[in-house]
Amino acid sequence: MSTNESQTQTPPSEEAGVTKNPSKKELAKLERQRRRQEAAAAAASSISAVSLEDAADPLAANYGDVALVDMQSKPKTGRVWTQVSNLNGGLKDQVVLIRGRAHTIRAVGKKMAFLVVREAGFTVQCVVTVAPDLVSPQMVKYANGLSRESVIDVEGVVSVPDVAIKGATQQVEIQVRKLHCVSKAVPTLPINIEDAARSEVEIEKALQAGEQLVRVNQDTRLNYRVLDLRTPANQGIFRVQYQVENIFRKFLKRQGFIGIHSPKIIPGSSEGGAAVFRLDYKGTPACLAQSPQLYKQMAISGGFNRVFEVGAVYRAEDSNTHRHLCEFIGLDVEMEIKEHYSEVMDIVGSLFVKMFDHLNENCRNELQAIGRQYPFEPLKYLRDTLRLTFEEGVQMLKEAGVEIDPFGDLNTESERRLGQLVLEKYNTEFYILHRYPLAVRPFYTMPCFDNPAYSNSFDVFIRGEEIISGAQRIHIPEILAQRAEECGINVQTISSYIDSFRYGIPPHGGFGVGLERVVMLFCALNNIRKSSLFPRDPQRLNP
Amino acid sequence: MSTNESQTQTPPSEEAGVTKNPSKKELAKLERQRRRQEAAAAAASSISAVSLEDAADPLAANYGDVALVDMQSKPKTGRVWTQVSNLNGGLKDQVVLIRGRAHTIRAVGKKMAFLVVREAGFTVQCVVTVAPDLVSPQMVKYANGLSRESVIDVEGVVSVPDVAIKGATQQVEIQVRKLHCVSKAVPTLPINIEDAARSEVEIEKALQAGEQLVRVNQDTRLNYRVLDLRTPANQGIFRVQYQVENIFRKFLKRQGFIGIHSPKIIPGSSEGGAAVFRLDYKGTPACLAQSPQLYKQMAISGGFNRVFEVGAVYRAEDSNTHRHLCEFIGLDVEMEIKEHYSEVMDIVGSLFVKMFDHLNENCRNELQAIGRQYPFEPLKYLRDTLRLTFEEGVQMLKEAGVEIDPFGDLNTESERRLGQLVLEKYNTEFYILHRYPLAVRPFYTMPCFDNPAYSNSFDVFIRGEEIISGAQRIHIPEILAQRAEECGINVQTISSYIDSFRYGIPPHGGFGVGLERVVMLFCALNNIRKSSLFPRDPQRLNP
After folding, report:
1. What whole-number distance in Å separates Cα of residue A28 and Cα of residue A52?
2. Does position B32 have pLDDT exceeding 70, yes or no?
3. Residue B222: helix, strand or coil by DSSP?
4. Where is the region Disordered (chains A, B) (predicted)?
5. Which of A409, B106, B144, B319 could be a cystine partner for A440, CB 3.0 to 4.6 Å?
């Protein structure tokens, strides 16, 4: 099987990007590639280019829109594409072929055009200049007529300018020989990438200088999400999100956890409460799971000592806030515990310190790209995650003049305030608050051994916002059923859950965290919709 | 932060299991552990053991049911648990503490009991014998009175018997000193693990010998899934499933893909067709996505060159077959292609060969455990995945006397037959059939350049069953809209999808595969419900 393409087309990743300074061997390989390209180009009558005008142009085959038939998987030509990210001075004087989006187009008279081509966040400047037997005036006109964001194939010779190139990530230019459009964007885009990529700081600065720059609001961004996603910040955000999930999986695998998948269509409601999406399941009333809680515990009963799940979570709440979504990705963990819920907090602490370290070390470019549009300070966290009891938290607030119900929950405001106090006192923006009042926790939470008004539970905070909830669970079926009833849950609807505790189950605990919230708070984004690819909130079901 | 527990309790995994022959250093550590245990035991008034009878037994503290208060996260005792999988001759004469399920209990008179304790699929024999000042007759009685599947803590001295131990995975015994029950199973379980773990072969054999053994049918298994999951075969199946997902992710990461998450609540229906689950989304009609198809393509438009998604897929079809589920996990891939849909087939071929290799090499124990209950032959596959065109497939069937519509789809029977023919001719049970008739593919499939009756699409088969569908997509919005209409889809409902092609999108393609089907077919299981943790089919919404 030929893996030629898949090897040469590998986009930038942790593994790629090592060819910045090609060795002699690599240069020889590139030379072979170039020869193949030339051979292919000689046989390139298979590219039926359609010139915009003047079919009499003897150089018409060098530019134009690619016909559909030439994009329908004809026999392969053997042409080899180079990634924009891999373009560098080592390729000087060589012919390369790239595919990317027309990021910007700038005409210089009728004889020259500058195209910046963007691929996967990387950009390169391409120069189209009239040259005898190579580039016709018609070709320059064609280049200048391209619409931004159109996908184009550019073939040309790599050159290294004497001065630094502004407005492109790669420090080489391409002297264009061939230019073909693979996919035309509409001439007037609903939002310009340039506008969508602009920071608030830039807009304010311009305003002070008397210039009004376009500000793309969050709703417009989401309406045209595929355009919005092309900004460097968004390219960064979703690569960071992917890494958050990767570290979560890798860390837990090393700790002996296995990944499971539990059903999201369930009978009854997953944890009680009214805010569920209901549906008809073949004549039976059903709803979408508010969490994998019951199922991950059943997996523990099923003999899997340590499990995790990455899956969709549904909340029908009418929460129109910066931090709530109706559909999000839950990162859930459940594990046997031997003696103490601190065993779960140990996992939480180590996991997140590992994650933060990894992001800071391995996602520098992504974090910088995000920071350029949405400036943020790196998260402050300790090597050993700080743990405070809820009582201690209440006391700290009290000493700061904030009185709260010692057996109620923290509201958003008191969470923020406590976050500030903790930051001042302990110099960390990531900490665990545990031993919550039992009354504010779900029915399956284990009460404390020494005071039933408290529970073996915890929340975790990043930058003053709650992000993780966890606890030891009640594993005695009689007590579980009793607590469910006390919390107003119809025990009938969760009978197979409670029954699963009658067949022997070890003491256990776990936690859950929203993937989008981790990214939002790590990068101090002001809206969770920024870290959801296609967000769902009470007002939005599109796209 | 103390990570004491999380380090010593790591369950068996690829990384664990290295302490089979402890070094001197490790032995010294174990000795220190033992001393700590003794110290803890001396202070063990914290374990409020409740004897079954005769509180006057001076050894009553050595056994009994653990009181709730002692499982509510009291201050830690410092006791250290050993995993059953780590028990071996190197621990001879040392005191160990284990937690597991009472797998079997066998009384030998009133002075002795044999307990087999199971943890994460590993088992060890524990012997309770009356001994002065150590084990009372009441303790033996307590042991014999335990119900199977109860979770127990066993402390005792490791011994190495002269003869091989049958009925346990570990070749050591524990001479029990302390025995406490953490979670009691009901005395009569709805299904016995022993029965659930029995192979069809064993049942038939016994029947021929005149003995009727219990056969647990699939429905009963699913009704009591948490018990059924405890069988060695099921422990294997879900560990294999986890590995399938891991290899999928790892391979694609290396190839420069990034993982995304798309919404499952969507407006309209994802690919047309009536069989969707409908729900009310805050007053707007919505449904559950039948695939992430449209969203993964929109991610390509959004500038992510190569994406994959692991997520739930919903099909409301009334398919009561061995291979259909109403909710399953889709492994989806979408990627830019330069010239040819074979670039996608390259990824499919390499990915699955890598996956099969990995499973065969690294999941031997799991595959053996599955095979003991559900015997199967290892999958036959080639290093370079075989590719046949649909026309070639039709021809092979024709030569074998099976006439099918050359522009229709294969039915289950002809798929099976073709699988046999391919196996005979090419010695592989894994192959790709491509260039399907356009009429049997979804609207977004790119027609062939040379014959619009065919399409740039493929299916992949394992053991004669279709498992993967893939294709090049139409990336020209006008043609896409036209094809959608021709296929009877209301273009209005997918307008944001079609619009996303108006902003420039490279030619692209991808494929989708069901996680449960990969596991089912790799292990030749006869029912997809066996490879779904809590399956959903037209008849089943529970547990």
Report:
1. 38
2. no
3. helix
4. 1-25
5. A409
Decide: B394 and B436 in contact? Cβ < 8 Å.
Answer: no
CATH number at residue A152: 2.40.50.140
**In a shared domain, residues A45 and A104:** yes
Residues A116 and A248 in one domain: no
Flag whether pLDDT at B97 surpasses 90.
Answer: yes
Tell me the pLDDT of chain B averaged across its residues.
90
Of A59, A62, A179, A173, nearest to A127 (Cα)?
A173
SS3 letters across A287-343: EECCCCHHHHHHHHHCCCCEEEEEEEEECCCCCCCCCCCCEEEEEEEEEECCCCCHH
Number of domains composing chain B = 3
Of A397, A373, A358, nearest to A524 by C-alpha is A373
Give the whole-angstrom CA distance, residue B112 versus residue B106.
9
Task: Point out the catalytic residue in the list A317, A391, A392, A465.
Answer: A317
Q: Which of B464, B468, B301 is nearest to B397 (CA)?
A: B464
Single out the residue in B151, B183, B215 at which a domain terminates: B183
Q: Tell whether B42 is within 8 A of chain A (Cβ).
A: no
For residue A39, give how far its alpha carbon lies from the nearest alpha carbon of chain B (Å).
17
> Same domain, yes or no, for A26 and A160?
yes
Q: In this structure, is residue B38 part of a structural domain?
A: yes
pLDDT for A210 equals 96
Taking the C-alpha atoms of residue A389 and residue A453, their distance in angstroms, rounded to an integer, is 14
User: Is A461 inside any structural domain?
Assistant: yes
Cβ <8 Å between A339 and B456: no
Task: Please check whether residue B538 lies inside any domain of the structure.
Answer: no
Q: Looking at chain A from residue 16 to 35, which residues have their Cβ under 8 Å from any Cβ of chain B?
A: 16
Q: Tell me if B73 and A341 make a contact (CB, 8 A cut-off).
A: yes
Same domain flag for A269 and A369 = yes
**Same domain for B463 and B406:** yes
> Has residue A115 been placed in a domain?
yes
The tens digit of pLDDT for each residue in B238-260 reads: 999 999 999 999 999 999 999 99
The pLDDT confidence band at residue B56, using thresholds 50, 70 and 90, is: confident
E strands, B66-218, are 95-108, 112-119, 122-129, 151-159, 173-183
Residues of B assigned a catalytic role:
315, 317, 323-324, 466, 469, 517
What confidence score (pLDDT) does residue A17 get? Answer: 32
Mean pLDDT by 10 residues, chain A (543 residues): 33 34 57 51 39 71 96 95 96 98 95 96 95 96 97 98 91 98 97 95 96 96 96 97 98 98 84 78 93 95 97 94 96 98 98 98 96 98 98 98 95 96 98 98 96 98 97 96 91 85 97 98 98 97 92
User: Do B143 and B199 fall within a single domain?
Assistant: no
CB contact under 8 A, B12 and A256: yes
* CATH number assigned to the domain comprising residue B367: 3.30.930.10
| Whether residue A166 sits in one domain with residue A241 | no
- The Cα A106–Cα A346 span in angstroms is 56
Q: Identify whether residues A176 and A198 lie together within a single domain.
A: no
Test A265 with B327 for CB contact under 8 angstroms: yes
Looking at B403-535, which runs of residues are DSSP E strands? 430-434, 457-462, 465-472, 508-514
ipTM rounded to 2 decimals: 0.89
Strand, coil or helix: B311: strand
pLDDT value, residue A271: 53
Asked whether the predicted pLDDT for residue B323 surpasses 90, the reply is yes
B169 touches B125 (CB < 8 A): no
Residues of A in contact with B281 (CB under 8 A): 277, 326, 541
The token pair at B111 is 């002075």
Range of the domain at B295: 232-531
